[in-house]
From TrEMBL:
Coiled coil: none annotated. This is Transport permease protein. One of its GO terms (biological process) is response to antibiotic. It is found in: Cell membrane; Membrane. GO terms for molecular function: ABC-type transporter activity. Keywords: Antibiotic resistance, Cell membrane, Membrane, Transmembrane, Transmembrane helix, Transport. The chain crosses the membrane at residues 26-46, 66-84, 105-133, 139-161, 173-191, 229-251. GO terms for cellular component: ATP-binding cassette (ABC) transporter complex. Belongs to the ABC-2 integral membrane protein family.
Amino acid sequence: MNKHFLGDTLVLLGRSLRHITRSMDTIITTILMPIAFMLLFTYVFGGAIDTGTTGSHAYVKYLLPGILLMTVASGIAYTAFRLFQDKSNGLFERLQSMPIARSSVLWAHVLTSVVANVISLVVVVAVALLMGFRSGASFSAWLAVAGIMILFTLALTWIAIIPGLTASTPDGASAFSYPLIFLPFLSSAFVPTHTMPGPVRAFAEHQPVTSIVNTLRNLFARQPVGTGVWTALAWCVGILVVAYFFAMAAYRRKIS
């Protein structure tokens, strides 16, 4: 069946994308919520937060990388929810009786997550531009930002696959994303970590979001990324590999 993997995956991908276009709550949650946070922090809290820069436009530059990560974290909750629905509706059982590649079911959901999140990220960046965000980053730097965000999306999506396959309720399938959405608040996404109390600062400086945010921020600002980019990539790849292993194990148990 492996020779049919690509075609089967594309067919199931089209099915998943059509479901997204019919789900307005998905669009609201994955796009409007991060934009609301960006507006709130910029125009309500931005003037009171000392990041070493001045003006709301400058704070948008500081804020945007964290908002991009929050956008992905809110988006992947629907990956788990959609996968749970397919499992509950007996889709897996029906597909097993058809001559298709079994892994194409999961990969269709993964690619749907990537496509949906890329669209959400583009919209968020467009709103940031309207708010005054500007970057002198080169084309290669923007490619690096895109690559890191896609890798981050893949890592979180494979995490989402696990509750999507193992949860017993729809709420349980998507609830795992709540800590991921709020993890940027305990990082350098909104304020410099040196302003935090000791234990919180220690956690913030050694969790994945901070290294990814700092790398994106430096790329946007045309600053040297240093070894931070390797730390960010290591976090993304490490999470991706571990999540993929456990997701595939859960899927094999489900279809066995």
